[in-house]
Amino acid sequence: MQTLTEKAYAKLNLYLDITGKRADGYHDLKTVMQTIDLCDTLEFSLTDGVGIGLSCDREDVPCDDSNLICKGILAVLSYAYFQPDCRIDVKLTKKIPSQAGMGGGSADCAAAIRAMNKLFHLDMSADEMREVGAMCGADVPFLIEGGTALCEGIGEKLTPLEPLNGVYFAVVKPNDAISTPQAYKLFDDKGTPNAGDYERFGTALKSGESAKLGKALYNAFTDTCGLTSVESAIAKLRKYGALGAEMTGSGSACFGIFNSEEKARKAVEMCDMPFGGIYLNKQ
Hints:
The chain is of the alpha+beta class. The chain has 2 domains: 2-160, Ribosomal Protein S5, domain 2 (2-Layer Sandwich), CATH 3.30.230.10; 168-279, Alpha-Beta Plaits (2-Layer Sandwich). The chain has 9 helices and 11 strands. Strands 1, 2, 3, 4, 5, 6 and 8 form a 7-stranded mixed sheet that branches. A 4-stranded antiparallel sheet has the order 9-10-7-11, with helices on both faces. Helix 1 (68-79) links the parallel strand 3 (52-56) and strand 4 (87-93). Helix 2 (104-119) crosses helix 3 (126-134).
């Protein structure tokens, strides 16, 4: 039996602006994503038989063909015109919260794409894996390699940025959740495209100064999501010392930037949310 373990790292959106809506219904984005060292773990096993089997330690995660892990596996096999003569079993251990805006499902999909490339020696380049990822979801191309990057279009146009160092992310998530389709609908009803200031954000990021970066964080979904629990989480993070705080993705997880692990840990404790943790960037 051949086995492989692959980590799937969560992401935060340090900057997220919606720049328009396309004719096909998708939205154009300008977002800076950052992977952090919170991760799911995927354990792959190749055994006698056929098909794909998926199990998970969390009951709220679907283990059928709707799961992005299965979609990622099938997308790779289709792209490579490859039919394995074995069964592919995946054991998923979830640490990334669901409906949080942290890319948990997309990260799992990216990990599955990387794993298939390794297990079957397909020799796919990073660009080819990103192309496969784009068929599965907007965040997947970035999460193939992660790091710090500007993502444009529907997420498929990537520009690597300088690594973010010396920053502690305090991440908290209230019980409330909002689906991505619902978040976009609310934005279409109430939001303003191109409301962010990317020039200011880019200057702050290049400066390497946490305080400047904290003041430049932006998420177009925050004002339109309508969740008072998100407003409360952001306010608490700032109250307890964050240099800046925002929601990530379409929510509902929020994060604060700190230059001290002790201060970040204290803020998570004081926020007292259902989910909370201290994380570093993952390059």
